[in-house]
Amino acid sequence: MPKSPKKLTSNRRALALNNGRVTSIEVARRAGVSQSTVSRVFSDRNLVSQETVDKVLRVARQLDYKPNAIARSLSNRRTDLIGILMAEITSPFYPYVLEKFSQRLHDLGKRVLLFTTGPHEDADSVLQHALQYQVDGLIIANITLTSGIVKESLKYRTPVLLFNRYVKGARAMTVVCDNVAGGRLVADALLDSGHQRLAYIAGRPEASTNVDREAGFMERLAERGYVGTLREQGYYTYESGYEACRRLLKLSTPPDGIFCANDITAMGALDAARDLGIKIPEQLSVIGFDDIPAAAWSAYSLTTVRQPVDQMIESSVALLLESMEQPNWKATARVIPGELVRRGSARLTTTVV
Amino acid sequence: MPKSPKKLTSNRRALALNNGRVTSIEVARRAGVSQSTVSRVFSDRNLVSQETVDKVLRVARQLDYKPNAIARSLSNRRTDLIGILMAEITSPFYPYVLEKFSQRLHDLGKRVLLFTTGPHEDADSVLQHALQYQVDGLIIANITLTSGIVKESLKYRTPVLLFNRYVKGARAMTVVCDNVAGGRLVADALLDSGHQRLAYIAGRPEASTNVDREAGFMERLAERGYVGTLREQGYYTYESGYEACRRLLKLSTPPDGIFCANDITAMGALDAARDLGIKIPEQLSVIGFDDIPAAAWSAYSLTTVRQPVDQMIESSVALLLESMEQPNWKATARVIPGELVRRGSARLTTTVV
DNA sequence: CTGAAAGCGCTTACAG
DNA sequence: CTGAAAGCGCTTACAG
Question: Integer distance in angstroms from CA B195 to C1' D11?
Fold first, then answer.
């Protein structure tokens, strides 16, 4: 007696809620095989005779059957879902990163569960949601990490990859552009071509990318005996670059060379300079970091440090998938060098050291 | 006998594969209640006494228990997953759209399953994957839709929302900017301010946005007796705008007013004109469509038709969620007007008609 | 308010 | 190569 009313209820629910989606049981019935066999046809075809495979596939096609990935995930304890946490996709550079990740992962049979956070939003709650969906791996991009996240990442065995960020002591894999070396490249380029008064327009103070780029730049300047570098705070945005540059150029002795923490900031800086009637690059050199597509536009023609994005993404995906196989993955870091791309926004001597 | 070995196997699997994640059974045992009760605490707290809720939550916190969303989805037949299909996130404007969708949906307790397709890739296979994950709804953005997709969307009851695209006869909801009216706005603005020779730089020929913007522009010009509009093919990219504009300006009688199918194209056009030494806006007016953030940058100061993105996204989310409640949702269309934003790239009379 | 149990749609060890 | 059945971790109708 408990069975039959249940059945009824459940059938009604099925009609109402199943969205007309066919299950393996239905396919099995029509093909005259067991449900297990249908399942095998869609998971490991080699376990089934060719004849049966054909029969099942024919019926499946007729009914437009597709295995339910949610049910499969529950059973497999593997969702093939990769969580990507990203703040501010709109900051140019990250859309490309996201697109590239999405496509690489998709080609490898993984799906992307996307979480974006506002600029100052905490990543921790978002992390909880990702974990609830049992993601097989997690990619964390331009997110300000709190120590909370670090602890969480330790609690779970879910592999975590930090893209272009790092956190000391976090049990995570890290792939970064060599931001320190990039900063040094810029210092050398500006000094080599005789610039006299240098400035740095910073990015978000808490971002490791900003910290490293500045450290490399300053460190190399100091090594070569240059002191008194000007500094303005920016926030990785066009507007902040524009304002910071304006402030610098209003100084009694303004800089003749500015290194900006990223390209967008540099574009703002360039526009500010031109709006003040300053000749680029004769009176002022501006150098960015990233090499986003707009850097090549003739309105900017920005000299910049190119991040090896494709390599960084390849490495990230490789590391992540590797560690998904190994329950005891280890924290590792991959540092990939960038390259100075010379365009019109900086007066650089072509002779390279 | 069949039970006990199963148990063993399954326990071993649990240790190896469960990633150390705690289930409701474990919480129930430690809290001295049934598994159903634990479940109720995390789904509908009102069904449980306050005392029990407290006890369960305490244990849950201790064990860091989080309900498994995959299991819940299977049981509920609702995943809270929304699929977003998008081509070329990198084309500015869409990162913003994606971010906004992601944040709105997240706030409403939905998660985003992201699928990107290459420019010429077929959306159909990607659709299959989204449906396998039992998404509750589907948002399709700047994707070239084939008739295949239309048919698929009919087969499933999964609500489909087309964002800024439409397909005739598709059973889907549609939210678009009024692209036709936008084109007409531009025609009037250029004609009102005495432009003599007009041109259109088109976007991807198959995109309904492009078709409509052009139709509105041409239609209005014709109504006002203007004939002989020049036309160049672009592809919604900076480079194609640059080249198309170059070709137009090399004509024996070049245009003095160009309407570009989107902002990026217009930026390419502006740079091409300036690289040829043409004065903007004295000798040439350039008008875009979208109003992406870079349009406001002083290097471009682009006059453009602003798409009411926020409204479009609000409407989209509202329509989609509404239809997820109603199994028999109907195809509907929402057309939202855009607005001409006057900046420095076009010589327009300020007196509006 | 609470528990026992069926069910969601798969996978897979076991037995043939 | 194939089928019967347990199990994945939840929800929820049913009975108390």
Answer: 67
pLDDT for residue A258: 98
Kindly calculate the radius of gyration of chain B based on its CA atoms and give it in whole angstroms: 27
- Which residue among A77, A114, A131 places its CB closest to the CB of B102? A114
Cα within 13 Å of Cα(B259), Cβ side: 31
Write the Ramachandran bin of A41: left for phi over 0, alpha for psi from -120 to 50, otherwise beta: alpha
- CA A313 to chain CA centroid, nearest Å: 8
Q: What is the pLDDT of residues A282-336, one digit of tens each?
A: 999 999 999 999 999 988 999 999 999 999 999 999 999 999 988 788 889 999 9
Same domain, A302 and A184: yes
Pairing, β B173-177 against β B160-163: parallel
> What is the per-residue pLDDT across B129-150, written as a single tens digit (0 to 9) for each?
999 999 999 999 987 776 666 6
Average pLDDT over chain A, rounded to an integer: 89
Note whether B191 and B202 are same-domain residues: yes
Cα dihedral A276, A279, A284, A289 in deg (nearest 10): 90
Q: Do B299 and A270 touch (CB under 8 A)?
A: yes
Instruction: Record the tokens describing residue B85, joined without a space.
Output: 């299909």
What is the span of the domain harbouring residue A55? Answer: 5-75
Bridge partners, residue A112, by sequence: A82, B114
Q: How confident is the model at residue A54 (pLDDT cuts 50, 70, 90)?
A: very high
pTM for this predicted structure = 0.90
Q: Which two tokens stand for residue A215?
A: 């450290």
* Domain-located, residue B344: no
Which of A85, A97, A287, A295 minimizes the C-alpha distance to A177? Answer: A97
